[in-house]
Known about the structure:
The protein is built from 13 helices and 10 strands. The model is unreliable at 1-5 (pLDDT under 50). The chain has 349 residues and is of the alpha+beta class. The chain starts with a helix and ends with a helix.
Amino acid sequence: MVMFMKLDLINDRNREIFRSIVETFLETGDPVGSRTLSKQDKISVSPATIRNVMSDLEEAGLILAPHTSAGRIPTDLGLRLFVDGMLEVGNLTKSERASIEGQCKARGENIENVLADASKMLSGLSHCASVVIVPKSDIALKHIEFVPYTQGKALVILVAEDGSVENRIIELPLGLPTSALMHASNYMNARLVGKTLQEATSVIALELSAHQAELDQLTAKVVKSGIAIWAGSKTSNPSLIVSGQANLLDNVTAMEDMERIRHLFEDLENKKELVNMLDLARDGRGVKMFIGSENNLFSLSGSSLVVSPYINGANRIVGVIGVIGPTRLNYARIIPMVDYTAKVVSSLL
């Protein structure tokens, strides 16, 4: 809302000059001066008038002078205003869409391969780094089964609605009859189908603690063991794939650029904070952007993140995929690229 109010306050001439400053900066990465703008065909005013407009835009907090140079660059606020209200997003070509689909499907026999290939593809096409959150255990469940394994042990098989299967081995109580494993399976399946593991285990744990479960003592121990081993497994936390960090070193010429990249590498290493931030994008559908200082994680590196959630076969958002790089990303190209990749991943899941 605030962004569009600021946009409404800019007249047509100032808006065109602001647009030209941002577009020229995104293309070259250099501060933009009044003389450069005056040579553009779409700008039909004198350098002196342009300087006056630039002064007004600077006072509004939309551009700034990085040095003593006469050139200006957009602020994070200015970039947000441009992206939200002025950016003309391009369309992917037929060959680009085919390339994204082909690379995502290259080794599509499981979720991990699909996401790893999608991550590498995005970093290659965008010439930036890519980030992917791999689904955590909040995927809806379809089936669980306790199967005799060896003496004193059972195999717990968990099947999710997206078709993924995971196995764990648990210790069995002494003297447990084989029928108790089937009883435990039936009990848990009646309570977990269509729920996430976290939702299902909460319900079951509550029943067991309140002694409402119709289970004998040994079977209840099997159920508790099954809950404990899944709740404590690594799948309960999302994991992060980062690809193409080396792309961020391309076209770095100034020491200050190298310093920003160093900070960005540190941000990427701080995976817990990055995962927490990416989780914010799971709240809704469609592409989301985090520009520069809008997020504390990127306050030093001056970076932007363009991400989109992807869904599984049950139409649930299970993860996030996107591109990270300097704030002068080619947003018009990267936004549809990220959006289409998320859709392709969703269709494969």
